[in-house]
Specification:
This protein is mainly α. 71% of the residues lie in helices and 0% in strands. The chain starts with a helix and ends in a 10-residue tail after the last helix.
Length: 350
């Protein structure tokens, strides 16, 4: 992301004087120019990446033929659930920034969409933070990054918990039968599972003891200067954190259901509970693999074929569903977010 965009996100007093000399009319013009520039960059990026996706045309053709044959109810449900998926994330973010300022649900949803659009070309979607904080007041922007990380923390915990359950099921039922697997037979499988459980336990402990993180910032000299930007993390009560976990769990179920519904609509036959468990391992693997959002389709496709291929030989349906979810849950919101960015006031008039 260009340096100027980073500067625009900053809210510390050191950054603000840089633009004090701009009058109201100039700031309005710059808002339109930068908004249009961001939209053009994002639109071109999305378009160029889509047309170069492997198997994209074949997957879209398979989806079209399958939906023509089996009906469009499945794709309609997936589209509706996409709104629930990001709506739950918007509600989480609305709750997270509440100690800083009141944000309406519609504004929170717009921030989430804009975050998705800015995240597609950044490693592990870190650009998402920049897109969200554009919707907040200047003096709250950097503080909101810490709040957003807490929300990501809650989603990661849910992903790990479900992933470990799925991993246990995979090890007990499929790993020993696989000749070439990510998890080859042997004692190290159990050690890996034990390590995962330990990491999960420590993660949950840290989540409910966020003051530990603040204590680290207070004791480390070079971190002490930015302690003010992470103090928000200790303002959440145990009830707030449990509520965030609940929303994260609901969201996890929603986007898991999306994938399974699309697989069914595209002709793959499977038992739902088995697919859910193996799909949870896919999400666990993807959570641990550093990728750029727009480029993760290839990785997700390979991992999905490996695990879901244990349930069905319909590889084309798995690939098509993976592409379909990528288009619906990432590309479509990114396009909407890039349009919404046109109306964001990057430069404040005052």
């Amino acid at each position: 992301m260009p340096r100027i965009i980073f500067d625009l996100f900053a809210n510390h007093s050191l950054f603000l004087p840089k633009f004090d000399y701009l009058n109201k009319s100039t700031k309005i013009i710059l808002n339109y120019l930068l908004g249009a520039g961001l939209f053009t960059w994002l639109a071109y990026s999305i378009y160029s990446q889509i047309i170069h996706r492997d198997n994209l045309q074949l997957s879209v053709r398979h989806m079209w033929e399958s939906l023509q044959e089996r009906g469009w109810v499945g794709i309609f449900l997936v589209l509706v659930l996409m709104l629930f998926n990001w709506g739950l994330e918007a509600r989480k973010w609305q709750k997270l920034v509440a100690p800083l300022e009141e944000v309406s649900f519609l504004r929170a949803f717009s921030a989430i969409m804009s975050g998705v659009s800015l995240s597609i070309n950044t490693p592990n979607r870190v650009g998402e933070y920049g897109g969200r904080i554009l919707y907040l007041k200047n003096h709250n922007k950097l503080k909101a990054i810490a709040a957003t990380i807490v929300g990501s923390f809650s989603q990661l915990i849910v992903t790990i918990i479900f992933g470990l359950i799925g991993l246990l099921y995979y090890i007990n039922n499929y790993a020993l039968a696989a000749e070439s697997a990510f998890l080859s037979p042997g004692m190290w499988q159990k050690l890996l599972l034990a390590a995962g459980i330990l990491i999960c336990g420590l993660t949950i402990l840290l989540y409910f003891r966020l003051q530990i993180i603040l204590a680290v910032f207070e004791k480390v000299p070079f971190l002490r200067k930015v302690k003010v930007f992470v103090q928000i993390i200790v303002k959440y009560s145990s009830g707030d954190l449990r509520y965030l976990l609940l929303l994260s769990a609901f969201r996890y179920i929603v986007f898991s259901a999306q994938y399974l519904i699309l697989l069914d609509a595209l002709g793959m036959e499977f038992l739902w509970w088995q697919a859910f468990l193996l799909n949870s391992v896919i999400y666990l693997v993807m959570a641990g693999v550093p990728t750029i959002a727009i480029a993760e389709l290839g990785v997700r496709g390979k991992v999905s074929i490996f695990f879901l291929g244990l349930l069905s030989s319909n590889t084309m349906a798995i690939i098509a569903a993976t592409v379909g979810i990528w288009l619906i849950n990432l590309v479509l919101p990114a396009v909407l977010g890039s349009v919404l960015l046109l109306g964001v006031k990057i430069f404040k008039e005052k």
